[in-house]
Write a structure and sequence with these properties.
Blueprint (H helix, E strand, L loop, with lengths): L5 E2 L14 E3 L8 H15 L4 E5 H9 L5 H15 L5 H5 L12 H13 L6 H13 L8 E4 H5 L1 E4 L4 E4 L8 E4 H6 L7 E4 L2 E2 H9 L8 H6 L5 H7 L19 E6 L4 E5 L1 E4 L9 H8 L33 E2 L5 E5 L8 E6 L7 H17 L4 E5 L6 E2 H11 L8 E4 L3 H13 L11 H8 L19 H5 L2 E3 L2 E3 L42 E5 L6 H12 L3 E5 L18 E4 H11 L6 H8 L4 H4 L1 E12 L19 E3 L9 H13 L6 E2 L7 H17 L15 H9 L2 H9 L8 H11 L7 E3 L3 E2 L22 E2 L55 E3 L3 H8 L34 H5 L3 H12 L1
Parallel strand pairs: 2-3, 15-16, 16-21, 21-22, 22-25
Antiparallel strand pairs: 1-17, 3-12, 4-24, 5-12, 6-7, 8-9, 8-10, 10-11, 13-14, 14-15, 18-24, 19-20, 23-24, 25-26, 27-30, 28-29
Helix pairs in contact: 1-2, 3-5, 5-6, 13-14, 14-18, 15-20, 24-29
């Protein structure tokens, strides 16, 4: 059941950059507000079909309030919701939360019953009034990213927006943050005035109260952060903060206008708007609006209108505003970067915007390959950027943790709330999964799928990492707060159907299991820091739990309300699994034919597809995560407050430059920089880090290489490549400064380019030693291939300071190459870029290879030039910017293929060689 591995990030709330992609035309006058809205939609759509139409918020609000209430239909809808709420795992804790929980207690069943009573008493005067109450009073107070219901009328057509965005920044990094208008901060940072009042209310108070009407945040500081612009939000969604648009409050009416009062005494009032998401053809009044969008006979999620909001930046970059990554997945979910600056040259940053990549294998490979690359370039410290990470595949989070701590077995305790539907499903699945005659060939896949699920007592591990012994061992009620739960369980990651099987599992081997047990730890725990902006939810919280509790990793949280003190970093849902209501309904219909008792049949009979057809999205949190400290008292992680080690405020330079956020986090984590609250003591683990680095690189060379997922290369036609090579400043500098090895033949010069230019990502000078004899140096006495066919010249190939030499499984010894497979007869060393010289000894008379600091270039030339028989240099060069990235299509298929033949080869490699020869 592949869907079982998802802790859905999509439920956090969509965000559209509507300020750049909407139009508002004059609204035709009409006594019917819905007719006026419909006419405005038609006019704007005809003029600009690809732009999202908008109307004044007041007009859309009047239209919604003119839609008549379908009283009996509303009562039927409320009744159909009840059995789905029974699956919400922490309902009793929401009704009676711990004292330090940020939000008031509320009983979702009592709230739903009140809505039903109000329907019977004719309290609601319109369908909109009823659905607003359902949304705001039953689901809004849940503060749970997995707990949501989007009713059709309320959410299908309109979203409320404002034409301004806000930022929260500290003037000096230590004083409490203030609120300013984003657009003014960008255009006139020196004169932008602080926002004091919004609609006559203290600005911070107004925002706090507004966002908490409906949000997915379990933490008030996280909710407060969500209303503001931040670069990570804009890069991942195109949104500018929920004050402007998006989030769950996009369905909560904010009035016709917004008035902002500034500290300098000025005041501005602007009109709020509603975007129109669906075609309004045929809508002429409230009743026709109801008929079109509140039809229980068909799903509310019908075909969208042809209008499509554009992205906020209009950029084709995977993460607009971010620097070019060293490694990335094609979808940009995982990306890696290096920091530069005083005290930061040994810091790498891995960004994970979710745990749900288009390919779990690419996600895994990108992280692994980035660690290898980073360590090879001397990066011994790691910033894990979890900003805007809403979760994803559960086991992807497990693998991410185990890549960093491969020998630490995680706990991951979780439980389900028991209800009649769950119990019936568990009884049936546990029975049919062990009865050969319970099924037939027509539905064998369905039964196999359910057998590989939590409903089967034979599936999952207990908290001792062993299988359950019986149905009762797993499902006998464990009572907490007068509620029955299953026993605690953990994922069985030794089960290949759960992991490597792409049909029923995630499709990858989890690091630390199976063939990935001999993986080295890449970084010291003290050299890792987690960076949060409060969004971290679902699977992100699971990975965070493992990193912080099991790995001992410190953490930093950004922003928060303008109050003194520490804040939490994990502000999203800590529940460990979500199910949408369609999945629960599917369980009832799939398993009903196998029901053998009246109780089982009655349990499934309570579910209908009515609430599915009357909503755009519906989900519940079905599995509580239980931290080790709460195994005895049963309090879900959702209600456990965990303050980060360090709190930092956003500052002006961080608004549109995410690297400033990374640098601030790295300095606080590794260089003793001051936090706004809390602090992280500077720790020196350089010696241990060096050992980790060597061990990891050695182990990496022994494992089959993953495919490094990178940005697409430029077109491979020859003209395009020549244009790309010739027309960049980097190329001009390269061709102007590069010494063409005048004492060596052209063929060998080209081989030097081929082997050395590709990985040159740092300011460096490389020295190449050569000799003109052929030597056999492999352990099994196989002849080591010379680069040239005739063996006249042999080029030593660089390696990194990991102790790696010529290995049978990676004869190139070149840890950054995924495709190179040339057997070089001897391997030389490359020094760490901080070092000027630290010669690697050898019994051979071959010259040594160095990488030295760029600033020491002149002195090193003088010092070592006489020691080289033949030498050359490569000047400052940035491969990625002109697409000299090594590609496996450049592989030398025949190790003895003459270079003259390669010059005639088609594609990018041949063009590259010919360009170098012409240059």
């Amino acid at each position: 059941m592949r869907s079982s591995f998802v802790a859905a990030p999509a439920l956090l709330g969509s965000v559209a950059a509507l300020s750049n992609s909407t139009t508002t035309a004059s609204v035709p006058s009409s006594t019917e507000p819905c007719a006026a809205v419909s006419a405005a939609w038609a006019s704007q759509h005809a003029a600009a079909p690809t732009v999202t139409p908008t109307v004044p918020a007041q007009l859309a609000y009047d239209c919604l309030n003119s839609v008549p209430l379908g009283k009996q239909e509303a009562i039927d809808l409320v009744d159909s919701i009840v059995p789905y709420l029974e699956w919400q795992s922490d309902a009793t804790y929401k009704a009676d939360p711990p004292a330090d929980y940020d939000f008031p207690a509320y009983d979702m069943f009592a709230a739903l019953e009140k809505v039903r009573s109000n329907l019977e008493a004719d309290v609601y005067t319109s369908e909109y009034a009823f659905q607003s109450a359902l949304y705001n009073e039953v689901f809004g107070p849940g503060h749970d990213g997995h707990f949501v219901y989007y009713p059709d009328l309320l959410t299908a057509v309109f979203e409320w927006t404002r034409e301004r965005a806000l930022v929260s920044i500290s003037e000096d990094g230590s004083s409490l943050p203030v609120i300013k208008i984003y657009e003014e901060v960008i255009s006139s940072p020196e004169t932008a005035s602080e926002v004091k009042l919004i609609n006559g209310i203290d600005a911070a108070t107004y925002l706090d109260e507004t966002i908490n009407k409906a949000n997915w945040n379990r933490d008030a500081d996280s909710a407060y952060n969500s209303v503001f612009f931040e670069q990570s939000l804009y890069a991942t969604t195109g949104g500018k903060g929920y004050f402007s648009s998006g989030g769950r409050i996009r369905y909560v009416y904010q009035g016709a206008n917004t008035t902002i009062t500034f500290a300098n005494g000025t005041e501005v009032t602007f009109e709020n708007h509603a975007t129109i998401k669906k075609a309004l053809t045929g809508v002429v009044d409230g009743p026709s609006f109801y008929a079109k969008f509140c039809n229980p006979l068909s799903p509310a999620v019908d075909a969208p209108s042809s209008t499509t909001p554009s992205t906020g930046s209009g950029s084709s970059d995977l993460l607009p505003g971010y620097p070019s990554p060293i490694v990335t997945t094609p979808d940009g979910i995982v990306s890696g970067y290096y920091l530069e600056g005083e005290g930061l040259d040994d810091v790498a940053v891995i960004v994970l915007t979710a745990f749900e990549s288009e390919s779990p294998a690419e996600f895994q490979a990108a992280a692994r390959d980035f660690y290898t690359a980073a360590l090879a370039f001397g990066k011994t410290k790691l910033v894990i950027d979890f900003q805007q990470n809403g979760g994803g595949y559960i086991l992807q989070g497990y693998d991410f943790f185990r890549q960093l701590f491969p020998h630490t077995v995680q706990e991951g305790n979780s439980r389900w709330k028991e209800n009649d539907g769950f119990n019936a499903a568990a009884e049936i699945v546990s029975r049919i999964s062990n009865e050969p005659n319970a099924t037939n060939n027509a539905n064998i896949d369905l039964v196999t799928s359910y057998s590989e699920s939590w409903f089967n007592w034979r599936y999952d591990y207990n908290i001792s990492n062993e299988g359950f012994s019986s149905f009762e061992d797993k499902f006998d009620p464990q009572v907490f707060q007068n509620t029955s739960y299953t026993n605690l369980m953990r994922w069985n990651l030794n089960d290949p159907l759960t992991t490597v099987n792409a049909t029923f599992g995630l499709g990858i081997e989890i690091t630390g299991y199976g063939n990935l047990t001999n993986v080295a730890q890449p970084f010291e725990a003290d050299n890792i820091i987690i960076l949060y902006d409060g969004v971290c939810a679902s699977t992100c919280t699971i990975a965070s739990e493992f990193l912080r509790i099991h790995g001992g990793v410190k953490s930093i949280a950004m922003g928060g309300r303008p109050k003194e003190g520490g804040i939490e970093g994990v502000g999203g849902i800590k529940g460990s699994q979500v199910l949408d209501w369609s999945s629960i309904y599917g369980f009832s219909t799939d398993l009903l034919p196998y029901a053998t008792t009246d109780k089982q049949k009655a349990a499934f009979a309570t579910y209908s597809d009515l609430p599915l057809n009357r909503s755009l999205a519906a989900a519940v949190n079905v599995r509580d995560q239980i931290l080790r400290e709460n195994v005895e008292d049963g309090i879900p992680a959702q209600f456990v407050k965990e303050i980060t080690d360090c709190r930092l405020y956003w500052t002006l330079p961080m608004i549109n430059d995410v690297t400033e956020v990374w640098k601030a986090a790295a300095n606080a984590a590794f260089n003793g920089a001051k936090c706004a609250y809390g602090g992280i003591e500077k720790r020196d683990v350089s010696e241990q880090a060096a050992v980790r680095r060597r061990s990891y690189l050695a182990a990496a060379a022994l494992h089959p290489r993953g495919i490094v997922s990178r940005r697409a290369l430029p077109p491979t036609n020859e003209r395009s490549w020549q244009d790309n090579l010739r027309d960049t400043p980097q190329t001009q500098k390269m061709t102007g400064d590069f010494a063409y090895f005048p004492r060596l033949p052209a063929e060998l010069r080209l081989e030097i380019w081929r082997l050395a230019i590709r990985p040159a990502r740092i300011k460096s000078v490389q020295f190449f030693g050569t000799q003109d004899t052929h030597v056999d140096l492999t352990e099994d006495s196989r002849p080591a291939y010379p680069i040239m066919e005739d063996g006249k010249y042999v080029l030593t190939t660089p390696r990194f300071q990991s102790g790696l030499g010529q290995l049978k499984v990676n004869e190139s010894g070149y840890t950054l190459d995924a495709g190179q497979d040339l057997s070089i007869f001897h391997i030389r060393g490359v020094l760490a870029m901080e070092a000027v010289a630290s010669q690697i000894k050898t019994d051979s008379f071959l010259m040594n290879l160095f990488t030295i600091d760029f600033e020491s270039f002149a002195s090193c030339l003088t010092r070592y030039r006489s020691e080289f028989q033949r030498w050359g240099t490569i000047s400052e060069f940035q491969v990625a910017s002109i697409a000299f990235e090594y590609d496996t299509s450049w592989e030398l298929g025949d190790k003895t293929m003459p270079l003259s033949d390669l010059f005639q080869a088609g594609g990018s490699r041949g063009c590259f060689l010919r360009f170098l020869e012409e240059a």
